[in-house]
Specification:
mainly beta, Neuraminidase, 2 domains, four-stranded antiparallel beta sheet, 2 helices, about 40% strand
Length: about 375
């Protein structure tokens, strides 16, 4: 099975006279897509000139038919109760480029427009009230920001190519810029996950050094989990990404290439894991986002399965969110590449790098409410 996707580079039947031009365009596109793939950890499959793939097109993404067919054949029959409430495919007065995360504070939605190195303050109608970027006042220096978190008073941004974590007030003013120390081998950190603790501490994941650290408000390191190299089990991580905290202060880490979510104690000790690497119900292929509700249920977005999977506090699989027709297991997904997750008062916000921001109402769900599709 091919794990990945590719973007269509030429028409299905290019005219003979355009072959040379198409080859040149394809080469440029391959280089650009490869660069994006490195930044976003997207497994990309490029079409072969001698044996083109049969494809299924979803929006601007083209998935290998072999991937789509097998994924549907093994898709979960369990649907976690939800209602799709609203979606923003783009700002009302413009566009964004690969939005990575969104959080809400009151009626305001803050969207991390990663490809444009900015944060947009919006309403549910997509109207932009403010932009926080290099042109705003005060200016904000973002370099491929990947993750966004809030505690209702502040915003924290994982500035992956700086590399640092920025703490802002809700008007976009920088309160702190916390540089991250290099790994044991001198490797530059690449922060791609961030969470804010109630006491002001900041938890950050470093994808390239395979570690998770807790910082105090001044940036001092309180503890670090992980070996500094690729690892698994209770020892460490393989590209740790998104982060979330539960009500008790435990930390949940999307361990991307290990295909799981790791729970750490507030002190950084390994507690347990949710999910395992795979492509069937209750497994994870590329966990990209994580959130935890007040009852301890764990929500995980999977960029390859194009779904949000839900686990009970004891690790039991409760079902998925994202099917276009919840009663039809053969129906497609409302997602293309789901990434950032945030939860507030029974609302789940999913940021999809191509489909935009999608909100689900979970207020009718319960611990044992997951139902099987027909």
């Amino acid at each position: 099975m091919i794990h990945g996707f590719h973007l269509r580079l030429t028409e299905r039947r290019p005219l003979p006279g355009t072959a040379l031009r198409n080859r040149a365009l394809a080469a440029c596109a391959v280089a650009a897509i490869g660069a994006v793939a490195v930044i976003y950890m997207l497994p990309v499959v490029f079409p072969s000139a001698s044996a083109p793939l049969t494809t299924v097109e979803v929006s601007r993404i083209v998935y290998p038919a072999s991937l789509v067919g097998k994924a549907r054949a093994r898709v979960s029959q369990m649907v976690y109760p939800n209602a799709l409430a609203w979606r923003l495919s783009a700002p009302a007065d413009g566009a964004w480029l690969m939005p990575a995360a969104a959080v809400t504070v009151g009626d305001d939605i803050f969207v991390l427009d990663a490809g444009n190195n900015r944060i947009l303050k919006m309403d549910k109608g997509g109207h932009v009230a403010a932009r926080f970027d290099s042109t705003s006042s005060p200016p904000l220096s973002l370099h491929m920001p990947i993750a966004l978190a809030t505690d209702g008073r502040r915003l924290a941004v994982a500035n992956s190519l700086a590399p640092d974590v920025l703490v802002l007030d809700l008007s976009g003013r920088v309160q702190a810029a916390l540089p991250l120390r290099a790994g044991d081998g001198g490797l530059t950190p690449r922060p791609i996950g961030v969470a804010l603790a109630p006491n002001g501490d900041i938890v950050v994941s470093d994808a390239d050094n395979h570690r998770v650290s807790r910082l105090d408000s001044s940036g001092a390191v309180l503890w670090t989990a992980g070996t500094g190299a690729r690892a698994g089990g209770a020892d460490g991580f393989n590209v740790p990404g998104a982060l979330a905290l539960d009500g008790a202060g435990n930390i949940y880490v999307a361990d991307t290439l290990n295909g799981r979510v790791v729970e750490l104690s507030a002190g950084g000790a390994f507690v347990r894991q949710f999910g395992r690497l795979g492509d069937a119900a209750g497994t994870l292929s590329r966990p990209k986002g994580v959130a935890v509700d007040r009852d301890g249920r764990v929500f995980v977005s999977d960029g390859l399965l194009a779904a949000v999977e839900v686990f009970a506090p004891d690790g039991a699989y409760l079902g998925l969110i994202g099917r276009s027709n919840p009663g039809d297991p053969a129906s497609g997904s409302v997602f293309v590449a789901p990434a950032g997750l945030s939860l507030q008062d029974g609302w789940l916000l999913v940021t999809d790098r191509f489909a935009g921001v999608i909100a689900f109402d979970l207020r009718g769900s319960g611990p044992a409410a997951a139902v099987a599709g027909d």
